Structure formats: structure tokens, C-alpha cells
Amino acid sequence: MPGPLTSYADFYQHSIDQPDAFWTEQAKLIDWFAPFTRVCNNDKPPFAHWFEGGKTNLCHNAVDRHLATRGDQAALIYVSSETGIEKTYSFKELHLEVQRMAASLKAMGVVQGDRVLIYMPMIAEAAFAMLACARIGAIHCVVFGGFASGSLASRIDDASPKVIVSADAGSRGGKVVAYKPLLDEAIRLSSHKPEAVLLVDRALAPMDMTPGRDLLWADLRAKYMQAQVPCEALDSTAISYTIYTSGTTGKPKGVQRDTGGYAVALAASMKHIFDGQPGETYFSTSDIGWVVGHSYIIYGPLIAGMASIMYEGLPTQGMDGQPNGGVWWSLVEKYKVTAMFSAPTAVRVLKKQDPAYLKKYDLSSLRALFLAGEPLDEPTARWISEGLNVPIIDNYWQTETGWPLITLMSGSTNGVERKTPKFGSPGVPMYGYRVKILHESTGEELTRPNEKGVVVIEGPTPPGFMQTIWKDDARFVNTYWKSVPGKMVYNTFDWGIRDEDGYYFILGRTDDVINVAGHRLGTREIEESISGHAMVAEVAVVGVADALKGQVAMAFVVPKDAAALTDASAAFKLEGEIMKRVDGDLGAVARPSRVRFVSVLPKTRSGKLLRRAIQAVCEGRDAGDLTTMDDPAALEQIRDRVKLG
Ligand code: AMP
User: Fold this and answer.
1) pLDDT under 50 in the chain at which residues?
2) Whole domain around residue 594: which residue ranges?
């Protein structure tokens, strides 16, 4: 790296002009079992292979390499306001638990390259399972615990796991959610059957064990108490995990990530963006079922030698299970959290609590609050910024990118200035990312300030970025890299503008993906579930702005027999049935907030649903030139239904 680079612009430009030198320097942040021979192989774009020839291991970097220097320090701090359990695992203890889990997986026949599907609540064993997979080179596929049997079954079929790791139940707001029956139903629905299922029994719900398939973690743990399982030396390009995310089709995409590139990307981001120091405590309020959980509950903080808090429960519930809007702040005080990561929705929930909670605890350890996953609105940002009196750092990224692509660098550990935040903007492009704004239909680059276009990334994409879609290179290329005319660029499917100072503003998705309370959902998946109801002829699901959740899903349904819905109670009943169906197929997270019945849906002459027009009407906006359709009365009907509430 040339001398100390103190300006953001110089640091960023160096990463773009001399990527090999830049990333070779960053690669020193992790341990390698064998050095890499090529920094980036981009011979066959858009497939960028990072650190070829190098051998490393994510679990070694997250756990083993800290044993000598900080073995007795906290690594994983598990806190559940659902069960009142609070337990700290030192790096040494984590090392032992991960080896017990790794030995158990091996005993079940798991070898390098096998998939292990993890369907678990936020409990420490979920972290052990992820790290154990990384340790032995198995590919973990974590499925969000809020998803139901239908979603889980399609992921089981796509991932074809040898083993599934799960638990008897999760708990949300004191309500037990039994996982085992959902899992059994998913396995019944799927064509692929796992060889074994490893179950953590939390004694929250009874479990029907399937003999010959189901095993208890407590039994295997006892058996492998003293197990020593070394970290496999894995190729840098070996697949570490897949994580499913929603797109425009009903079929979820398995975002696939490598090993070495991901480890380097996370280590670099902990230094340059999150300002994480070894021995400090990081608190991300996300869930392991999402990419934030992978990158910034499990791997990122541990790679940086930090303790990571893994929290199960609502932000408004104390350790005694009673309402308490200060529970997160009490953890910041108790564990001297220096960096906290959450989502705007969670902050909006906290904003409804007594503001005295923010004053009640000593929050002086906190240096910054990072927020991501959905647009950060100004009132929320101002409220929390005034309450905490620390920088609020918005960061924009996606499951696909693995780490933030637009945000502000931390400034404190690398000597690079932190640019002043601007409300409404996550900031500027991060090192390694060539971000552009292109015209949606011509593909022409928009260089003038404040011109709205599609946010794209020019290849080669940096380390940590998705390698491909699991088992589907063609879909990866066609979906992401061939959707802008005449250019082979990665499409984020987000609208954006760049202002005169180079700050980006993200203006929502260009596709049919919606974002409910920071959870990414495909409207097409919800539509497919609703269409399965015998009384539904046609359906359109759109995301509608919501003050608390950012967006909520709203469904417009054309019933097969309109006459059967003439009285309000029949419509109400069908609405309930449809919601229940979505709960059962996809999980409550995808349940539409409202279902409204119409006789026709607004479409173009060629039969394409006018989702953006429906959405505009639902949000009380002018549908303007979006109304070029055959039957304008269809949109009027939607307007009427929305008015009725
Ligand atoms: P996910 O893959 O679930 O992380 O969702 C990624 C999508 O969430 C992005 O494509 C954006 O639409 C949205 N998103 C994530 N972070 C931000 C942010 N800081 N500001 C605005 N939108 C965001």
C-alpha cells in the first residue's frame, strides 16, 4: 500500500486502480494455511475467483487463531429474553463446543462439500453448527427459523442436505413456536430426504422422533465431549455456504459464497467500516437466518477477535419476560458494547418506547450504531442519533454482496477520514466496488448529479461477493449480469441517485422484491401460495409503505366465485383463510397485512400485471403514466378497496 492514505478518495481509488496490491494487503488480516498464488482470476467474467491457490479456513480464523492470545476472553455471548438464559462462551469453550458439533456431523457421515441445512432459532448451538461446518468444509445452508414448511421444503430440495440441524422450538414474545413439526412436514413435502436430523432439545415443545433418522444433540455431545477435530485446509475458492434469498421468480436463489475471499472481506470490513477491535464486544440484533447474521453475528466479529452477542427475543422484552424497552441498552451497558448493528425497523419499534430508557443505562462504551437492510428514514435517524449521541452509520448492501457496498468508512483504525454522514444517504462506494448508475432501458451511464437510474456494479466484484447461484451459473449470469441492455454489469435491482458530492441515495427496488421489517420477500412467492387456495382465481401482491415496518405486503385477489363473497363475513373468512395459508406455506413473516377482493386486476394489453401502478394507488400516490392499461376501471376498483381500509 502506498504511504498512509488518509483521504477516503485516495483509499478508494487505490483499491480500484491497484486491486491486487490492495487486496494482498487486506489478505494479511487473516491466517492462511498456504499462500495464494493469484489475487484475482477474472478470466471468465462475471465469475471472479479470489486468492486462488491459497488455503484457509473460516472457523480457524474465527476461533482457533485466537486461542493463544485471547482463549479465555468472551467469544460468544448468548442472551435470550425468551428463556431468561444468558451464557458466555470464551474462545476456548467455543472451540470445544464446535469440535463436539464437528465430530457429531462427521459421525453422521458429513464430509467436505456435503450440505448441512440449519433450521434453528437464535441459540448458541446454531453458531456451533455453522462453525463446525466451516471447520470440516461442509457447506451450511441456514434457513430462517421464521419460515414455514413450504419454504423449508423448497430449500431442502435445492440444497439436498445430507444432514439437517434443528431444534424442538423457537420462542417469540413468550410464545413457543414448535419447529420439529414444521421440519417433519417439510421433509414429508420435499423429494430429497436427509440421512439424519440432529435436534437440540430446549425442553420447550415435545418432539416426535423418527427412529433411525433423528438424533439428539445432547447424546452426541456427551459422546464427543473430548473430540479433537482439526480445521480442514480448504481452497480459498471452496464453497463455505449458501443462503437463500428472494428474487422476481417464486424460486428462491441460493446465494453461494467462497471461503478465503469472504474471510478477507469480513476482516477488512471489521477494520475499515465497523471499527472492531479485538477484545471488544459487538452486538448485532439480526438473525442467523439472514446474511447480516452470517457476516456480522458469527464470522465478522469473531474473525476480528471480538465477543459477539447473539440475542434471542424482542427488543421490548426484559430478561424476566416482562415488557422492557431498554433490554438492548442494558446489554450495551453490561457487556460494554462498542459497535452495535441493527435495522431501521427495530429502531422505529424502540422509538415508541419511553425515551427514559436511553438515559437509564451507561452507553458510553458505544462508538457507533450501524443500520442496514432497508432505507433509513430521517426522523428515525435523527431520533436515535440524538438519543445515543454517537454516529449513526447507514449501510447499504444485499445478501448477494455479503458486506456493505455503500456506507462510510470508520476512520479510527485505518487513519482514513470518516466522511460526514448525510441524512437519507448510506454514503459512498466502499473500496473494491465500482458502483455506477445506469439508465434503466438504454444502459447509458448517468453521470450528472441526481439523475435517477439503476444501481449497478462493474466486475470484477470484490472478495466476499457471491460466487454464483448454487447449481445454477446460467441463472446467476442471466438474472444479475444480463439485465441491463448492452452492458455486462451486476444489477442490484435498486433505484438510486448520486448527488453532487458523490453520496448515493437508494430509492427502492426495481423488481418485485419487497422489504418487510428488514426481511426480504418476493411478492411472487406470496402470490404462488395464495393462488393455491381453491377459491382464488388471480392474485397480485405489492409492497406498500408502512410507518413501522418500512413496507407491508398487500394482496388483491380475484375470487373464482364473486357471488360467494357478497356478504362481508364471507370475505372476512376468506381473508383469514388466505392469511393462514401463507403462514403455513411461507411463515407469518410473509403474511399479507391485508387481503382485498376485486373483480379484475390492472394489466397491460400484453397481460403484464401493473404492480407499480397498484402500489402507487395503495400509497395514495398518483399512478401517473403507469396507468397505460386496457381497463382503467381496474385501478379505480383497487383505489376504492384501499379507501375502505
Ligand atoms: P437483503 O438481501 O435481504 O439484505 O436485502 C437487500 C435489499 O434491501 C437491497 O437491495 C435494498 O433494496 C434494501 N436495502 C438494504 N440496505 C439498505 C439501505 N441501507 N438503504 C436502503 N435500502 C437498503
Assistant:
1) none
2) 517-644
